[in-house]
Each structure stands twice: as structure tokens, then as C-alpha cells.
């Protein structure tokens, strides 16, 4: 029998609640962007195709994670309240994979137009405000 030592409550809180929740998506996006910078295949058309693929995969994940369980709970179990769907829009929940795909598409489009750094900063500020 293997004995597993428990981690301290403060360490568990730091790993689970600080690094795992609010910073997981920004760290993922930062690592993705660093990967793009050092990638050999970072032409605009490849980035747009990759973004479309990631976005469609994100929608597919949402289908299997949200839509199908909702359908199964409602149809087979007869209770549509077990798995709430939020007005039918649960299929389009915000997901890091879909967000990564949209960011790939945007970066590919911006790369095609070869905008200056000043214009990119203005675009970034406007998108942050929106």
C-alpha cells in the first residue's frame, strides 16, 4: 500500500486557486504567443488556417462537454434542469481553445497587413476598451 502525503493547505490554495484558476488562461496564451514568435511556420495564411482549426475544435469540445450532456439529461432522464443550458447558448461558452483560435485568426490578419508597432498598440488599446 502506497501512502500519499498530503500537501499543506496553503500550498494547495496557492497552486489550485491562484495559479490554477485566474492565471491559467493568460499563461496559456502567453506560451502560445511565444511559440508563434519562435515558429518556423508563422506565415499569415498558416496562422489563419490554424486559428480556424482551433476555433472549430473549441466548438467541438463545447458540444461534447456541454450540449450533449444537456441533451442526454433532458431526453433520457426527462429532467432538463439537471444540466442548465443558459438560454440555449451553452454551446458557445467562452473556452480557451476557441479564444486561442480567434486570436490566431486575428494575428494572422494583422500580420498580413504588416502594420507598424504604433498601429498595433492602438488596435490593442481599442480592443481592450471594447
Task: Label this structure with key terms.
mainly alpha
Descriptive overview:
By secondary structure, this protein is an all-alpha fold. The chain has one domain. Helix content is 68%, strand content 0%. It has five helices and no strands. α3 runs antiparallel to α4. The termini are far apart.
Main sheet, how many strands, which sense, barrel? Answer: none
Portion of residues in beta strands equals under 5%
Termini separation comes to 56 Å
Count of the separate structural domains? 1
What number is the mean pLDDT? 81
Secondary structure class reads mainly alpha
Q: Give unreliable regions as ranges.
A: none
Share of residues in helices: 55-70%
What is the N-to-C order of secondary-structure elements (H for helix, E for strand)? HHHHH
Question: How many helices in DSSP terms?
Answer: 5
Q: For the CA atoms, what is the radius of gyration?
A: 20 Å
- Tell how many strands the DSSP assignment holds: 0
Shape: extended
Structure described in brief:
This protein is mostly helical and 130 residues long.
Which helices and strands, and how do they pair?
Layout: H1 9-19, H2 24-37, H3 44-75, H4 96-113, H5 117-129
Amino acid at each position: 500500500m502506497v501512502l500519499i502525503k498530503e500537501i499543506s493547505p496553503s500550498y494547495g490554495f496557492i497552486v489550485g486557486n491562484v495559479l490554477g484558476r485566474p492565471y491559467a488562461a493568460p499563461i496559456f496564451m502567453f506560451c502560445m504567443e511565444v511559440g508563434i514568435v519562435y515558429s518556423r511556420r508563422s506565415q499569415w495564411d498558416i496562422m489563419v488556417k490554424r486559428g480556424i482549426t482551433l476555433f472549430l475544435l473549441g466548438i467541438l469540445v463545447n458540444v461534447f462537454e456541454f450540449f450533449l450532456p444537456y441533451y442526454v439529461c433532458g431526453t433520457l432522464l426527462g429532467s432538463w434542469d439537471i444540466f442548465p443550458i443558459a438560454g440555449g447558448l451553452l454551446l458557445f461558452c467562452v473556452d480557451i481553445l476557441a479564444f486561442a483560435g480567434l486570436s490566431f485568426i486575428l494575428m494572422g490578419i494583422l500580420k498580413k497587413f504588416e502594420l507598424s508597432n504604433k498601429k498595433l498598440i492602438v488596435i490593442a488599446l481599442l480592443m481592450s476598451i471594447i
